[in-house]
Amino acid sequence: MLTIKEAGMLGATDTDHIALAKKEGRVIFTQDVDFLRLHAKGTEHCGIVYAQQQTPIGEIIRCLTLLHQILDYNDMQNHIEFL
Hints:
The protein has a 3-stranded parallel sheet with strand order 1-2-3, covered by helices on one side. The protein has 83 residues and is an alpha/beta fold. It has helices at residues 14-24, 34-40, 57-70, 73-76; strands at 28-30, 48-50, 80-82. The protein is globular and about 30 Å long. The protein has one domain (14-82). It has 4 helices and 3 strands, in the order αβαβααβ.
């Protein structure tokens, strides 16, 4: 898996990140509410997982692991999961 820097995405817009994730069939994990706004505007995506800034890292990891186990690609299409 490439980092944001390796993918040439450092400084890219949120829309660019969604486009790349969609192209690669990936779900975005974020703590940036701007992605929620893009979803509300109807921007298509392969899924967004959102956690508030204060969410402990252990909880984030547990929840992401659980989501990976119970949801598949089709479940996440244009869907947001809130941690």
